[in-house]
Amino acid sequence: MFAALRSAAHAALRAANACVAAAIRWALFAFRLTNVTAEASTSACPAPTTLLLLPAELLSVILSSLDTRSLARFAATCRPLWLDAPTPASAPRDIGPVEAELRLRAKARGLETASSLPDFAPSWVPYLLKRDRRDAQRRQAPLTAGIDVSIFVDEGGRLLTCGRDSGGILRLGHAEDPDADPDGDTIRRIGPPTPVPSMQDRRIVSVATGGDHCLALTAQGEVYSWGDGEYGALGHGDENSRAVPSRIESLSRIESIDAGIRSTCAAVNAAGSLFTWGRAMYMLPQTMSNGLGYALESQAESQLTPKQVEALSQDRVVGVSAGQGFTLAVTDAGAVFSFGYSREGALGHGPLEAEVLPRRIDALAQTGRRFVAVAAVNDHALALTEEGELYGWGAGCANGHGSTERTPRQVAALIGERIKLVDARHDASCAVTEKGELFTWSSCCSYYNLGHGVNTPQDTPKRVEGLVRTRVAAAVIGGWHTLAADEDGVVWGFGQRNRALGLDDGTITIYSPVEMPTPIPTLRVRALKSP
After folding, report:
1. pLDDT of the chain along its 531 residues, tens only?
2. Calculated CA dihedral for residues 247, 251, 257, 261, nearest 10 degrees
3. How far is CA 96 from CA 41, 59, 100, 102, 358, in A?
């Protein structure tokens, strides 16, 4: 009987492509095979209850095949699958199969789950479902592309970097070379991705770079920073640069980070509080708008330590992206807020160019969609809905429309595609679909960082044909090069800054572009699929 069940399970899973309806149909089939009495079939949830009669290994196979939304809907059909009711403190708490699956997913992504339920969460399953959705769709990935640096999180959670330090800017996170000329152009060059020695006892889950300053987030919710400390970009209360990662002591329980291209940084903690620090980009002095979400006294040039954005204290922020002088934040309710200054409508409020405090983008609210991720860069912005629809606005073609749009509009070239991840940097953008397809586009010469084999602009999203046989799970795009990882953690790179692609063997120069996606040997980043 067990062999028959196993055979039926695998056959159904292959045919159903991991959807809830198929899982329920298979449960009904198993119901018949196990000869459960007719009385049991009249219960409130016969099909899901039957699943509980199956071996735990088979039930795990079914649940692991579902995406977050389908898992939530399936769990809601039957309380025994949920099984997260409070128990007396003295008694061991039973964990249901759905909660067990969500904990496995968090562990596979390198995240730790606290032993006690956070105060703001009603129960374990809703909390873990929201966390799983945020982690799957948030902008951060286990890799990031800067100007002359790439940063990775490998399978073991180690922090690795490659590229070069130049002009005294220490992006690589390795101790400064004592024999190097501090006034020289190049201090250090690292060809293949190499572990950062000082971080080997830390398990990293996410990385971000603004070009000259870098951030790393640990599984314990700690944030480390290194690189150029100008304008307080490193968050340590001074403007000193740091060659090796140093923990930002004032931040804890952080779940999301971002490093803007102009020395502005942001972080969101487990309670949904947003913190910003770094450069105050005053474009219009009379408005005090600066991309930080709060006004600074006496036109101060910077915020040297992380400070909470009090204007969003009543909202649970789940994602943030820092652009050039403006910032976007998305809340648990699916609303998108913007603040700061933009000359080209990147705030999403039409001709209005400056906002000191966060303001909800009405044009997105009017769509009736829930938004789950955002990307802010030079003068354009992107927002992703829960259904996988992509909206873009701002200047140039990097917004996906081929022309400036001062209010958000759905990207026509991607209508019909279900997008799961977006990224943008400088004048380029990229998107990854649920099917694992990578699209890129840019408003300027691409330096081959779009992966289309030509050094020309691409006004609207175009699929990267060099990865058609690869199921892309995550991608980050830089001003000069792009990185993409498949579900097994294999990383592909392309672009002109090949010294930061992990392909530099010491013989190539910066003017030798990698025109098409090329796998980085010996590197595996943290896998981006369910266990």
Report:
1. 444 444 544 444 444 444 444 444 444 344 333 333 333 333 445 555 566 677 777 888 888 877 777 788 777 776 666 665 554 445 566 788 888 888 888 776 666 676 777 776 777 888 788 777 666 555 457 999 988 899 999 988 999 999 888 767 788 998 865 555 555 554 578 889 999 999 999 999 999 998 789 999 998 899 999 999 999 999 999 999 999 999 999 999 998 999 988 789 999 998 899 999 998 876 555 555 688 999 887 667 899 999 999 999 999 998 999 988 899 999 988 999 999 988 788 999 988 778 889 999 999 999 999 999 999 988 899 999 988 999 999 987 788 898 889 899 999 999 999 998 999 987 899 999 989 999 999 877 667 889 998 888 888 999 999 999 999 999 999 878 999 999 889 999 998 866 788 887 666 665 678 889 999 988 999 866 643
2. -70
3. 21, 11, 6, 10, 40
- The domain made up of 138-524 is a member of CATH 2.40.50.140: no
Hey, which residues does 188 pair with through a beta bridge?
165
**Helix, strand or coil, per DSSP, at residue 30:** helix
Query: In sequence order, what DSSP letters do the residues of 63-125 get, joined into one string?
Result: HHTS-HHHHHHHHTT-HHHH------TTSPPP--HHHHHHHHHHHHTT----SS--TT-SSHH
* Spans of all domains in the chain: 2-84+96-130, 138-524
CB-based contacts of 479, cutoff 8 Å, min separation 6: 147, 425, 426, 427, 428, 447, 449
What is the rounded CA–CA span in Å between residue 194 and residue 215?
A: 17
For residues 181 and 167, give the distance between their C-alpha atoms in angstroms, rounded to a whole number.
10
Rounded distance between C-alpha atoms, residue 437 and residue 430, angstroms: 10
The CA distance from 233 to 332, in Å, is 27
Token pair listed for 255: 């779940």
**Helix 68-75 vs helix 97-108: crossing angle, to nearest 10:** 160
Using alpha carbons, select from 105, 4, 97, 99 the residue that is nearest to residue 51.
97
